[in-house]
Amino acid sequence: VWIGDDTAVVTAPGGGRLLLCADAVVAGVHADLTLTTLSDFGWKAVVANVSDVAAMGGRPLHVLVTVASPPGTDVDLLYDGIASACDAYACPVVGGDLVSAASLVVTVAMTGSVDGPAVRRAGARPGDVIWVTGPLGAAAAGLRAWRTGTDHAELRRAHARPQAALAEGTAARLAGATAMIDVSDGFAADLGHLADASGVGFELDDLPVAAGATEEEARRGGDDYVLVFCAPQEAPVAERFAGLPSPLRIGRCVEDPAARTIRGAPLQPEGWEHPFSGRP
Amino acid sequence: VWIGDDTAVVTAPGGGRLLLCADAVVAGVHADLTLTTLSDFGWKAVVANVSDVAAMGGRPLHVLVTVASPPGTDVDLLYDGIASACDAYACPVVGGDLVSAASLVVTVAMTGSVDGPAVRRAGARPGDVIWVTGPLGAAAAGLRAWRTGTDHAELRRAHARPQAALAEGTAARLAGATAMIDVSDGFAADLGHLADASGVGFELDDLPVAAGATEEEARRGGDDYVLVFCAPQEAPVAERFAGLPSPLRIGRCVEDPAARTIRGAPLQPEGWEHPFSGRP
Predict the structure, then answer these.
(1) Cβ–Cβ < 8 Å for B96, B64
(2) Which of B1, B13, B101 sits opposite A103 (nearest CB)?
(3) Which end of chain B, N or C, is surrounded by fewer C-beta atoms within 10 Å?
C-alpha cells in the first residue's frame, strides 16, 4: 500500500525536517510468544521503528505506543520492554492508547530528526559500492535456536532483542550514502526494494553470514536490522565509521536494473515469510 | 496508563511546537460493522485524532495509518474512509503499515501544530465559565437509531461520520480558554477529567441535549467530539466564535474539587461503556 521509504520526511512546525514512521507487530505473526516474552515483543516493536529512522540517517525523538490487547495480557511486562528500548535509543514515550481487542497488536509511531537531507531507498547510482553494516542471518538463526532448544545465547538474543544500527546509519549518511535501507523483510527482498527505487541492478561478490547462521538465513532472514547502503567509490566510509564496527563491502550497483546477481548467479528477491503467519 | 492530555506537546526539529497523538479503533469494540461500514470505521479512526488535536486548539498536519486486519477485510473501503477524513481535515497520510491479525485494529497517529501555547485539560480556575461547542448525545442517539432501525439520517450520521470541532478549538484557544477537552468518553467523564487535571469543581446550570437524544445520552454518550472548554468571564468568546455555531455557556468552575453538580444534584462521572465491548 505504501510506496517508497518506510519513513516519511515532512516539514515540522517551525520549518525543521521531521521524520515520521509507524510499524505494527502482531502476536502470532511477528513473534511467537511461546518462545520469547512480552517484554521482548515490546522491545521489538520499538526497535523496528528505530531501525526505519536509522535507515534514513536520522535519530529518533518521540514515541507513541498504541496497544490493542486481549483481556489478561500482562501489559506491564509489555511496557517494560517498550520502556527499555526507548531508554536504549533515547526516545521517550510521549503518548498513545490502550484498547481491548481479540489479538495483541502493538503499534509504535515515531518521530525523528536528521541533520541534513535524509538518505532514501532511491538515489543509488551505477558504480556505487554496496555496503552492509554487519553480518546477516543472526535473527533467523536465533529463531531457529529458540525453536530447536539450541543453547546459543548470542543468536537467541539477536532474535529476541535485535539492535538498530543507529550510529551506523548516521555514519553512512555522513559518508555520503546515496541510498539506504534496513534489513527487515530479508536481505534479498530489501536490497531489491532499494534497487527498484533507485532503478539500478547489482552485482554482489559475497554476503557476510553471521556466525551460526546459514547462507539461506543470511539471504532471506528478516528482522536483522542491519543496514544496506550504497556510496560512491571515493566516499570516506572507513573514516566515518571510525569507532564503529567496520561495514562490509559486498558489491556494486550496475546500470541494468534486471542484473541482480551474487557471485554471478541470480539473487532471488523472495523475502522472509514471517514464520508465525497463517498466510500462505 | 497515560496521564493527562490525549495529545502531547513536544519540541520539533528546528524548535517549533509539535502536537502528537495516537488512537486505535477496534472492530467490535469501537464500532459494530454490522451497522456501519468499513469506510465509516476508517473515517472515525482519523476523526478521533483530529478531535484530540482540536482540543488543544491546534490543527492536524500529518497522519500515519497502521492497519492490522484479518484476511478478507475490504481494506480499500477502509482506506476510502480514512482518505475522506484526511481530505476533510487537510492532513495527508504520509505513511503507515499494513499487517495481518485476527482482529481489525486501525491505529492512527497524527502530528499537529498550534500557533501559541496549547490548551490543556489542566488550567481551569474557579470562576471560569464552562462552555460546550454544541449539543450533546447525538452520536449515542445515532447508534440507537442504527440499532433500532429508526430513520433519522442526521443522528445516524452523527454516529457514523462524527465531525471534529477543529475551527471551534482554535476559536476557544484564541478567546483565552484556560482548559479544554473533547467529549470522547462521554460528557460527564470528560468534564471530570478536565476538573481532575485542573483541581477544580463545577456547577452546571444546564446541558444542551441534541435533538432526538435523551438527557442520559447527552450526559454519558461517547464519541460526540464536541469540545468542552473553560474561560474567564470576560473572555471574548462570542467575538472569537463569529461565523461559527455559537458555543453554549453551561456553568462555572468552583474552588471545591468535590463539588460537581448539575442543577444542584451530583453529576456522576461514569462514562460511556463502548457498547460493543465484551468487557463488563
Answers:
(1) yes
(2) B101
(3) C
> In whole angstroms, what is the distance from residue B79 CA to residue B92 CA?
12
Q: What is the DSSP secondary structure assignment for residue B241, as one 8-state letter?
A: T
CB spacing of B2 vs A98 below 8 angstroms: yes
| ipTM summary value | 0.90
> B16 with B55: CB under 8 angstroms?
no
pTM of structure: 0.92
Q: Measuring CA to CA, which residue among B38, B69, B25 is closest to residue B160?
A: B38
Nearest to A4 by CA among A163, A261, A196: A196
Which among A103, A223, A277 is the top mutation candidate for probing chain B, defined by the most B β-carbons within 10 Å of its own β-carbon?
A103
Residue pointed to by grid coordinates 483565552: B176
d(CA A153, CA A146): 10
Which one, of B173, B107, B189, lies nearest residue A97 by Cα?
Answer: B107
